[in-house]
Amino acid sequence: MRQPGRHFLQIPGPSAVPDRILRAIAMPVVDHRGPGFADLGNRVLSGIQSIFKTEQPVIIYPASGTGAWEAALVNTLSTGDKVLMVETGHFAFLWQQLALKLGLNPQLIRTDWRRGADPALIEQALREDSDYSIKAVCVVHNETSTGCTSQIARVRKAINAAGHPALLMVDTISGLGSSADFRFDEWGVDVAVSGSQKGLMLPPGLSFNAVSEKALAANATASLPTAYWQWRDMIEANKRGYFPYTPATNLLFGLAEAIDMLHEEGLDNVFARHKRHSAATRAAVRAWGLDVQCTVEDEYSPVLTAVRVPDGTDADALRTVILEHCNMSLGNGLSKVQGKVFRIGHLGDFNDVMLLGTLGGIEMGLHLADVPHQGGGSQAALDYLKSTS
Amino acid sequence: MRQPGRHFLQIPGPSAVPDRILRAIAMPVVDHRGPGFADLGNRVLSGIQSIFKTEQPVIIYPASGTGAWEAALVNTLSTGDKVLMVETGHFAFLWQQLALKLGLNPQLIRTDWRRGADPALIEQALREDSDYSIKAVCVVHNETSTGCTSQIARVRKAINAAGHPALLMVDTISGLGSSADFRFDEWGVDVAVSGSQKGLMLPPGLSFNAVSEKALAANATASLPTAYWQWRDMIEANKRGYFPYTPATNLLFGLAEAIDMLHEEGLDNVFARHKRHSAATRAAVRAWGLDVQCTVEDEYSPVLTAVRVPDGTDADALRTVILEHCNMSLGNGLSKVQGKVFRIGHLGDFNDVMLLGTLGGIEMGLHLADVPHQGGGSQAALDYLKSTS
Amino acid sequence: MRQPGRHFLQIPGPSAVPDRILRAIAMPVVDHRGPGFADLGNRVLSGIQSIFKTEQPVIIYPASGTGAWEAALVNTLSTGDKVLMVETGHFAFLWQQLALKLGLNPQLIRTDWRRGADPALIEQALREDSDYSIKAVCVVHNETSTGCTSQIARVRKAINAAGHPALLMVDTISGLGSSADFRFDEWGVDVAVSGSQKGLMLPPGLSFNAVSEKALAANATASLPTAYWQWRDMIEANKRGYFPYTPATNLLFGLAEAIDMLHEEGLDNVFARHKRHSAATRAAVRAWGLDVQCTVEDEYSPVLTAVRVPDGTDADALRTVILEHCNMSLGNGLSKVQGKVFRIGHLGDFNDVMLLGTLGGIEMGLHLADVPHQGGGSQAALDYLKSTS
Amino acid sequence: MRQPGRHFLQIPGPSAVPDRILRAIAMPVVDHRGPGFADLGNRVLSGIQSIFKTEQPVIIYPASGTGAWEAALVNTLSTGDKVLMVETGHFAFLWQQLALKLGLNPQLIRTDWRRGADPALIEQALREDSDYSIKAVCVVHNETSTGCTSQIARVRKAINAAGHPALLMVDTISGLGSSADFRFDEWGVDVAVSGSQKGLMLPPGLSFNAVSEKALAANATASLPTAYWQWRDMIEANKRGYFPYTPATNLLFGLAEAIDMLHEEGLDNVFARHKRHSAATRAAVRAWGLDVQCTVEDEYSPVLTAVRVPDGTDADALRTVILEHCNMSLGNGLSKVQGKVFRIGHLGDFNDVMLLGTLGGIEMGLHLADVPHQGGGSQAALDYLKSTS
Question: What pLDDT sits at residue D178?
Fold first, then answer.
């Protein structure tokens, strides 16, 4: 049977794509080598810099985020290179797995998946690496599997404090753009990785590398083989507004629209909106008597909230009930929190009324799935929103 | 500043148009005289009959609902004809004004705008009309200005009880389709008037007349001049799947899709859904300590709920606050309830989560606009939905 | 079997709707009574004046062109009024039939359907009408059934020469906008009738009345009953950017886009483009050895070319072959030229390459359908286009 | 100034995307890990096999074609491996450059860029490679820079005749699907590379690897590092209709639609259509007195025709004139034929009338740009189409 009404896609990405962007990507494809294309190319290339808050080159790949992970590594490293990675959750773990497949040598800092990266542990590891065998420090800005952020500026300070030359690479796939503030230049990031389908409000299919001068220097000596991901060809062609191989033209139409929309609202307004929605969501979770996966106040994600269900309860069964009764998708618990956690996406093009619908639907699902909880969570969120409107 | 997220169009029509229908109306226009057109024509002509629950002809006009009001009258009546009309609210009043402009002679049964048409008063008026000067009884099925429905089957019984030959004309512009059950044949309606932008989930621009055999007989002797609205030419051309003049082709694409969607969900499911949402909305209104405009339990509209604000409060100021802070449109109070009433549309392609968002947004607005009320309305609706899920 | 490639909709309207406009009409519907609507309302209302070249009010109806015909008559005339109409073709004939249905008294000037209205005959008829019983002169600007235009400025001069007070009403449904120059104020037209699906490049569903002050004065005393078409309510509501009843909102989105597109190209460029394409089409027709229906050089339509097939040939069989083999729709011969004429639309958003495809497809069809003709028509058009590029 | 009418995108890819597909990719994005996604996943995964004519796995990458080139090599080869490549044109050259960047050792067979790969030369090279140091033979099926095809079945025979174990890798980026027949299983191809934006009628952003069992065996021992491109993870996840990392969901919507469209027309009809259009295009070129770049009759591309301009003429200046006067994009001459060749794309969703428009526009451009030529080419193509309709 047809499910009536609009589907609520409240996974932590892809976020629901606004109509304006859907219409933009449905424009007729154009000649990406024609004289008119450079207008679009220049527009998205400079526009995406404003979102990363950088004056450095930003590479736009026709690929999803996993490709941009790979690109960051293969452009800067050589076989066997050591990289320091912090396993803040499932996606940090996957990036490490990818590094292994590429023949790199990840050194891992583990966490309990309930917090961001600890700058002190990074500093300690770098101090111990007296021969500078660690070539890069890899941190996930917003860990989509746990709803914890890492404090990138503090990680940079830790690297500097250790006086270590390693590159700082940051996955901000789900952090960038509409959701969390990200400051590539100010924070001293060397390579930032992002994707289209989260804060940028696009369908998946584009991903990004922002690249510092230090990263470009590393690129000159890196020996991992690559062609598709190679920064140099991209940067060269991008100077004239073009791409060295066929770009995903129609997604670029959408990207141009998305960047406009973010600036129309104002990035600071966008960040404040997500932070407020995140707090309102936690108010609901607490009223239900449930726990938030993230345990560090400063590190709550503005993008998503991962919620722990009581022992003996199956979070995936809850999600199924919510999908079937409320026409709403939530994110599942991944890997070692599978079944123990569900994730509420409150990212992208979102507002108070959508959040209240979302939380109301979850509360209905908690009831229908017989998850032990107290009612009133949706109302608690509403009260929070009232008090901060 | 750009308002983030999806706009909640919670006026009692136009209802938010689902993506499937928006995509359908954006298909390239076709030759409405070409051999392929009849497939579309026949599909919408027979499909719309299934929505009116009739085997009689249904005329599809390229016009909005006001046009179908005019069509009902000019096809069946002559200058100076008396029509019995029940002023159940603003739209019933407008239909009467339209009858006056056409040179008809409306006899009015007034109400307090808080209930549907009273069959007993209709019966009485007809019994007093011993020379059958009343040619038609005009009733609004779902009065969009008040949220009260009239019980059409009981009106038909009243006419029959009076043994009066008047035609029964029913405006079901906001009643038909996804919102309220309507049974043209079973209820013995002679002319039904409807439009595209309510339960049918389309943009405005199409309107309808369903026509009984008795109405067709009246048409043969009616003398009000008309060409555009003339049933006969339409019915003749419709037999082959075509129209006598240019139809609104792209809206017909959407109509075909809308009819499919209604049958995919099942009309009975559609009606039950709207009735449940209407009850949940009233639960919220009562929890807020506010009054519903409609005072008769059997006559609550499944389509919309008109809510009275406390004396000394301006409903339009409230609506402005909600529009600006919550990106949501509500319906205004019309004519004599202007400023005293706001109207919540819960019609069309709608679901629990959207309703909870809607009510949460209204509660936030009541708070922000300093309307005297109690909190917890949204939660009351949620509790009702839980208990009936 | 699926027909590959883009369908060529070369009927003389609806014209193929450009992607920009299709995307515009697929935007989410909005509250036509909300505060934001007036921006759209004012934009289309003033924009459409620039297309009619008038500072007088232009009424926008949610209706197709037949409705605007009716509106012109019912707003200005009374039962039994005499109107002078020139039967330049099938659509002029239909307008006359509509006048009859409305109870008017058309006096007809007949033509051979191969030319526009003759100003001299109009002047003569008016001179003979010494008691001014003729209340309006009705002329079709661009007769879509024949491809002949009438010279409206000369008709106005004829009326003035006769010193007759009749209103000048002009159907420019297929003339307005992208196709032919139309100058409401300069030419002294009193009521102009138009529609959305021709030069305005929209799907059908909107139609227009431009209204002179003299027509407004006639409106004050006209007694034909009407409500939907009534100008006064429209003009009053339009002053604030709104409509007295529900407009066809999504088509208005498209109208705003269409007006922008016309001005981006420049109206004079638009008119020159259509005139050139019309001449190129005639070059092809002549090279084929076929006749153009219009016989008066000054009156060739820039919008369409009606082509006569040789005696013994069925134009409709030819059209069927072209539809099936070339995925192209052409207009049929209507009424007394049925089967004898086919019509090539070269209106709306059209360019040289599309015209060459169209003419090439027709030449292929002439061959496949065994219509006696000479080859080389498409080449003749190309040579003409080359020489005028 | 706005250019009127539809843009003719007659480059040899991206091809113009049909409306049906544009609408499909504008559908709301869905949860690619949700229970409903597998329907889409399975549909496109099995559908794309039917287009490659294989029962082997076909990998779908969120990447453009260059990525699928890289994927073919990194999944099967190790650093320093020798690959035999035939430089049939610019794209074959680029694939070789990519192999170099990946640390492979290409052995090159050169051509004059006016023919496909010569099976005899391949056989000879393989016979000379007595120690089987050549691990793969790489051939471009349809060389987009020259309009020459290589005869893949004959290449396979040559490899077999030499008794050599090298893998056969074929780039059919512009060959697959709507344009040229491709038979993965029957022809004994080991890895086929393709993309979305040519015969598949989609925007760029998806690319493909079809993979034989022998290629899978090579994959087990290949040591080039890769993660994003890795077949094994893909094949494993694809079994259940899912992908190991985020797919380009909205392009998959379009792919499903494209596959349906190809089967609605019938692949054999699709191939015949392109072959016929290619012949018609050559008829035009010859009538103009110009040369086709491809000199081998059996190897004319059904997808595009590269046309040589007379010495002393600049093909790019011609293309500029055509873009500005005819609103049509043609492909440029690449690398060593830059300025000497222009390329006409007649691929994807295309029909007779579109071809006639295209050729007419080119003939107009030849005239306007003062390229020495004879008129009548467009007419010659028309005559060819007539004779084969």
Answer: 73
Query: pLDDT > 90: what percent of chain C?
Result: 98
Report how far residue D47's alpha carbon sits from residue D50's, in angstroms, rounded to the nearest whole number.
5
Best C23, C253, C349 member to test A by mutation, with max A CBs in 10 Å, is: C23
Low-confidence stretches of chain A (pLDDT < 50) are none
ipTM of the predicted structure?
0.97
How many angstroms separate the CA of residue D23 from the nearest CA in chain B? 6
From the list C293, C349, C258, the residue with the least C-alpha distance to C10 is C349
A360 contacts in chain B (CB < 8 Å): 352-353, 356-357, 360, 378, 382
- Report the mean per-residue pLDDT for chain D: 97
For D305, the 3-state DSSP assignment is strand
Contacts by A121-127, CB closer than 8 A, 24 or more apart: A121/A86, A122/A84, A122/A86, A122/A155, A122/A158, A122/A159, A122/A162, A123/A158, A123/A159, A123/A161, A123/A162, A125/A84, A126/A84, A126/A158, A126/A159, A126/A162, A126/A164, A126/A166, A127/A162, A127/A164
Give the type of residue at B24: A
Q: Is the pLDDT of residue C49 over 90?
A: yes
Sign of the C-alpha dihedral computed for residues A378, A381, A385 and A386 taken in this order = positive
Place of tokens 């023949």: A103
Q: Is the distance from CB of C331 to CB of C345 less than 8 angstroms?
A: yes
**Type and span of the H or E element at B317:** helix B315-326
Contacts of B191 (CB under 8 A, 6+ apart): B72, B75, B76, B136, B167, B168, B169, B170, B209, B210, B211, B212, B215
At A334, the amino acid letter reads L
CA B283 – CA B298 distance, rounded (Å): 16
Is B28–C16 a contact, with Cβ atoms under 8 angstroms apart? yes
Encode pLDDT of C349-361 as tens digits. 999 999 999 999 9
pTM value surpassing 0.90: yes
Distance (Å, whole) CA D276 – CA D266: 16
Tell me the mean pLDDT per 10 residues along chain B, length 389.
94 96 97 96 98 98 98 98 98 98 98 98 98 98 97 98 98 88 97 97 98 98 96 98 98 98 96 98 98 97 98 97 98 97 98 98 98 97 96
**In whole angstroms, what is the distance from residue D89 CA to residue D110 CA?**
9
CA distance C310 to C314: 8
How far apart are alpha carbons A197 and A203 in whole angstroms? 5
* Structural tokens at position C292: 């153009």
Chain C neighbors of B20, CB-CB under 8 A: none
Q: Sign of dihedral through CA atoms A71, A75, A80, A82? A: negative
Shortest CA gap A350–chain B (Å): 4
Closest C-alpha among D48, D56, D31 to residue D243: D31
Of C26, C30, C61, the CB nearest to B26: C26
pLDDT tens by residue, A284-325: 999 999 999 999 999 999 999 999 999 999 999 999 999 999
Q: C interface mutation test: which of A23, A250, A253, A257 has the most C CBs within 10 A? A: A23
Helix (H) and strand (E) counts in chain D: 14, 14
- Note whether C23 contacts A28, CB cutoff 8 Å: no
Subunits with 3+ Cβ pairs within 8 Å of C are A, B, D
Sign of CA pseudo-dihedral A97, A99, A101, A107: negative
Residue D104 CB contacts under 8 Å (≥ 6 apart), including other chains:
D73, D77, D79, D80, D81, D82, D83
Beta-carbon separation of D26 and B27 below 8 A = no
**Contact criterion met (CB < 8 Å) for D23 and B26:** yes
Chain D closest-CA separation from residue A383 CA (Å): 30
- Nearest CB partner across the interface for D1, out of C265, C360, C379: C265
Helices D249-265 and D37-52 meet at what angle, rounded to 10? 50
Q: State the helix-helix crossing angle for C90-101 and C65-74, rounded to 10 degrees.
A: 50
